[in-house]
Write a structure and sequence with these properties.
Helix content: 40-55%
Distance between the termini: 80 Å
Structural class: alpha+beta
Strand order of the largest sheet: 4-5-3-2-1-6
CATH topology: Gyrase A, domain 2
Largest sheet: 6 strands, antiparallel
Number of domains: 1
Strand content: 15-25%
Shape: elongated
Radius of gyration: 26 Å
Length: 166
């Protein structure tokens, strides 16, 4: 009888060890795969942001020279939420226009910190005047799309200009 109980205890302990081993192994590999996916997503987001910044640098030069009248940027996932960039030759500055919900004070302060010099509002149209700088333009566009329009990770952009599209 003693040996029978010892065998039951050994079997129970070995089953618990196997269960804990495979559960731990499964947990470890799922977390590792999740970390790898997050790094890939972050890298893709940063690469696209750099690409958009470099493309906007060229388009801003075209806006200044008059080859292009406007640049329209939106995510292909959310085509109704658009941001338009226009060059104001009198002030030698860019104007970002977007139609959105009412922007609160804290969001407006964040946009000011990103580089906005002034703004005006006409009903639901917000117009932000910023200096000619592709980094500031990209940061404000990403802030508008990700924070104000609540797109978790703005990606897969479509850039349309008055002369063609990307």
């Amino acid at each position: 009888m003693k040996n029978l109980f010892t065998v039951f205890i050994l079997i129970a302990v070995s089953v618990l060890l196997f269960i804990s081993y495979y559960t731990g192994k499964n947990f470890f590999y799922k977390n590792r795969a999740k970390k790898i996916k997050n790094k890939i997503r972050e890298k893709r987001h940063n690469d696209e942001r750099t690409y958009i910044r470099n493309y906007l640098r060229i388009q801003i030069q075209n806006l200044e020279s008059g080859k292009v009248c406007w640049v329209l940027i939106y995510s292909r996932l959310h085509p109704g939420q658009k941001v338009e960039i226009i060059f104001e030759p009198v002030e030698r500055a860019l104007q970002i226009q977007t139609r959105t919900r009412k922007i609160n004070f804290w969001e407006m302060e964040k946009i000011k910190k990103l580089g906005m010099s002034r703004y005006f509002i006409r009903e639901d149209l917000y117009c932000f005047t910023i200096p000619v700088n592709s980094k500031i333009v990209t940061d404000i566009i990403y802030y508008i799309l990700e924070e104000i329009y609540n797109q978790k990770c703005a990606q897969n952009f479509k850039v349309v200009t008055s002369e063609g599209s990307l």
